[in-house]
Amino acid sequence: MNIQRCTKLLLVIFFPVTLLSACAGYQTQTKATMGAMQAGSVDFAIADLEKNNSSENKDILYYLEKGELLRMKGSYELSRDQWLVADARVREWEDQAKTNPAKLLGNIGSVLVNDTTRTYEGRDFEKVFVNVNLALDHIAIGTWDDARVEIKKMHEREAIIADFRSKELESAKSTASSKGLKVTQFKELNGYPVETLTDPAVIRLKNSYESAFANYLAGFVYEALGEVSLAAPGYRKAAEMVPNNPIVDDGLSGLEARVKTRTPKMVDTLFVIESGSAPSIVTQVLPIILPIPGQYGMTLVATPISWPVIRAADSSMVPGNVNVNNKIVPLALLTSVDVMARRALADEMPGIIVRSSVRAITKGVAQKAVDKTTANLGMAGLFVSLATKVVSISSEVADERGWRTLPGFYSVGRVKLPEGTNTVTIQTPAGVKTLDFQVSGKYAVISLRTTGSSLYLAQSPFINSPDVAIAEPEPVIKPVVAPVKPKKVVAANKPKQKPADAVNTQQ
């Protein structure tokens, strides 16, 4: 009987560990993938990604990571297809957020085990960057109209996220109140590195999903399509987010004139510089005081819980300019994904604290029940009790998942270049690198991605437009003047002849 009871308890104890191990492999896989990517071995990084995602039920992160790796490789159509799958997953989330937000606000898996058992749906900025990167892929393919579609979807997605986050915050406050939780914000966690989330750059962001780069790109795409009324709001929003920057301000000034006129054989070229990678999330264990139900009512217990932490990234290696055809083109740092990620975490922390606290209370109650049940089971009971404590501690990990291959910083520069082959030189963490590229048409986008010792190039398709032959003027043909016939002159003294019927017939 004792053995059967112990066996049942052990199954209950180690079932969460099984769930945990099923979710813990992704970060190991990402580290290997990131290492290969930074070393310039994109094919190896893709192979590693495939090796660790052999099951048919792939996480959204698989499609996000593979789309980025394929884009670095220059396989824009395949990259687009991966991100379209990720976009479909985000649309499923959007449908639930609009029609049944309560389903998203509660997740039993995160209460029983930890947040890694929850379906990863992408952080808010990741959801939006799916549209941004799809737009960049479409531009690299040459389908500007499809890029326009993604820009429109991006703005619609931002509105859905804003509405859902307000509901999530209210739900977290309500749950915390009903459970009698005293700690509801990260600032109240003793020992948490609050400076990472209260940095002035983080506070300046109104949310974690709107970015100056995305808005500037929206303005450029609409301008390239000749839609001045839609381009202006994009440039204006970017200027509001990055004020007093001449590169950004110039996007709005002279907009109409740029659309209406064009310098022959010159291409308005936007340089997009993507530096580094999105930040990683690490776990930090800190105690939190929680009310644990006991035999004599509630008892306040200091319970260790794992919390996600994002350390500020070093932006010192983000280039301030590029050299194009021996001419310095200044760059404007528009968006830090590092700052967006920390703002996203700051917004998510109320929900994380509530879920973690409820989970810890549940585990505390379960531990008391196990101790009570195994009190009379001798050594077997002691083993089960200790095993329960070990599992409770080991299963308490923070959710460290994230889109790591996403660039960490986005900068832009703009210049008019002659059609054809041009040369760009850029400072990277591994030194100065030079690449040739080609531009054609009225507008073009050149993307340069620096990561580790590698530099990747993506560009708008080059279309070699033939020179228009100048037609020779037609010879001038002088009009032929017809000869004028002389008029017949009648003598003035010649008598007029009577008509025949006027002749006198009398004899």
Describe this structure in words.
With 507 residues, the chain is α+β, with helices and mostly antiparallel strands. The chain has one domain (2-459). Helices cover 49% and strands 18% of the residues. It is built from 16 helices and 11 strands. The chain has a 5-stranded mixed β-sheet. A hairpin with a 2-residue loop joins strand 4 (321-324) and strand 5. The radius of gyration is 36 Å and the shape is elongated. Mean pLDDT is 82; it is low at 6-26, 468-473 and 494-507.
Number of helices: 16
State the low-pLDDT regions, or none.
6-26, 468-473, 494-507
Please indicate the count of domains: 1
Distance between the termini: 173 Å
Average pLDDT score: 82
The largest sheet has its strands arranged as: 6-7-1-10-11
Amount of helix: 40-55%
Concise overview:
With 507 residues, the chain is an alpha+beta fold. The chain is built from 16 helices and 11 strands. The chain has one domain (2-459).
List keywords for this structure.
507 residues; alpha+beta; five-stranded mixed β-sheet; four-stranded antiparallel β-sheet; 16 helices; 11 strands; disordered C terminus
List the helices and strands and how they pair.
Elements: H1 2-23, H2 25-38, H3 42-51, H4 60-73, H5 76-99, H6 101-105, H7 108-112, H8 124-141, H9 144-179, H10 200-204, H11 212-224, H12 228-241, H13 246-252, H14 255-260, E1 266-275, E2 282-294, E3 297-309, E4 321-324, E5 327-330, E6 332-336, H15 337-373, H16 378-394, E7 409-418, E8 420-428, E9 431-439, E10 443-451, E11 454-459
Parallel strand pairs: 1-10
Antiparallel strand pairs: 1-7, 2-3, 4-5, 4-8, 6-7, 8-9, 10-11
